[in-house]
Write a structure and sequence with these properties.
binds zinc ion, 55 residues, mainly alpha
Length: 55
């Protein structure tokens, strides 16, 4: 079993672990919600792998 980690952004438990990009200046792993959010912020308008329902 993997040691439980906390999201470096929201401090919530990580179910699916995502590694932030270096340019984001985030230390540690991220949860899927924060990762998608960051992706959206950094690549606005670009097609993203994550499914963001209507926003
Ligand atoms: Zn998070």
């Amino acid at each position: 079993m993997i040691a439980d980690e906390k999201c470096a952004v929201c401090k919530g438990p990580i179910v699916q672990k995502y590694i932030p990009m270096e340019s984001w200046n985030i230390k540690g792993a991220m949860c899927s919600a924060c990762y998608s959010k960051r992706l959206g912020e950094h690549y606005p308008g670009e097609h993203v792998r994550v499914n963001l329902d209507k926003k």
